[in-house]
Amino acid sequence: MQPVLETKDLTISFGGHTAVSGVSLQVMAHTFTSIIGPNGAGKTTFFNLLSGQFRPTSGKVFIKGKDVTHLSPAKRTRLGMGRSFQITNVFPSLTVLENVRLAVQAQAGVFYNMFAHRKTYAAFEEKAYELLKTVLLSQKSDSLAKHLAHGEKRKLEIAMLLALGTEVLLLDEPTAGMSLEEVPAILDVIRSIKEEGNRTILLIEHKMDMVLDLSDRLMVLFNGKLLAEDTPEKIMQNELVQSAYLGGLYDDAS
Ligand SMILES: Nc1ncnc2c1ncn2[C@@H]1O[C@H](COP(=O)(O)OP(=O)(O)OP(=O)(O)O)[C@@H](O)[C@H]1O
């Protein structure tokens, strides 16, 4: 089976510092992979290379077998890869439902003048409402986006990513900046997307309990290099990972 996402020898250097070094990885469709590693290991830089925010110094990125190394983030989004902070078109003065409905509409390629028909509009709205249920935000469907709490905004972003037909979701520390009370809700959202079973998820997260609970595979980055990639059980038993890093991670875990 062809991987939905693949990197070959992916490398990026900033000046003399190699932040991601020779990373080759295959991610199969509908799997959940978490990327772990100490601060500065290159996790976010790796995501930037996947999403196209950064161009590699060398190496390649493939989406569904297509070489996207030189494609813009927008073109990669159209091929099904999405990252939550790429969502810049959240309209603060529109309701939550309207925001998601516009994303559904954009994905369908239908513009204002073409969807005057009430049935089409209702279908878009219904789909948007379903997505709000997936991200556990349907009770806020009529709230203005600008009035959402931080955690709810992250849920809205995820709903919009789903509305845009994102097959490969890149989630970079979705719980960052959240209050402790907000964390279980975003965890439930991620779990429910995973359980729907039709998306591939890559997660960067420091919370090891969350990572171990959700992941099919773990990828360990250390000094920009891929130290190991395996099931959570095997990673936890991997002596190299243990000695290089895991002890320290548990100390850091919040
Ligand atoms: N645009 C940039 N210019 C120069 N150096 C950069 C740039 N982006 C990242 N780096 C460097 O690359 C290294 C990896 O950083 P990165 O943010 O990817 O680590 P990380 O694993 O995501 O860390 P954290 O867990 O703290 O978020 C760091 O040394 C960082 O300073």
Largest sheet, described in full?
6 strands, mixed
Would you tell me which CATH topology of the largest domain applies? Rossmann fold
Supply the CATH superfamily name of the largest domain. Answer: P-loop containing nucleotide triphosphate hydrolases
The average pLDDT is 89
Number of alpha- plus pi-helical segments: 9
Distance between the termini: 38 Å
Content-based structural category: alpha/beta
CATH-derived architecture of the largest domain: 3-Layer(aba) Sandwich
Structural domain count: 2
Largest sheet strand order: 6-7-8-3-9-10
Bound molecules: adenosine-5'-triphosphate
Percent range of helical residues: 25-40%
What value does the Rg take, in angstroms?
19 Å
Quick one: overall form?
A: globular
Care to count the β-strands?
10
Poorly predicted sequence stretches spanning 5 or more consecutive residues: none
The top level CATH class name of the largest domain: Alpha Beta
Order of helices and strands: EEEHEEHEHHHEHEHEEHH
- Proportion in β-strands: 15-25%
Oligomer: single chain
Organism: Brevibacillus composti
Keywords: ATP-binding, Nucleotide-binding, Transport
Pfam families: ABC_tran, BCA_ABC_TP_C
Domain ABC transporter: 5-248
Describe the structure.
The protein is globular, with a radius of gyration of 19 Å. It is of the alpha/beta class. The model has no long low-confidence stretch (mean pLDDT 89). The chain has a six-stranded mixed beta sheet, sandwiched between helices. A four-stranded antiparallel beta sheet has the order 2-1-4-5, with helices on one face. A hairpin with a 2-residue loop joins strand 4 (58-63) and strand 5. It has two domains: 1-80 and 168-254, Rossmann fold, CATH 3.40.50.300; 88-166, no CATH class. 39% of the residues lie in helices and 23% in strands. Adenosine-5'-triphosphate is lined by residues 14, 17, 19, 37, 39-45.
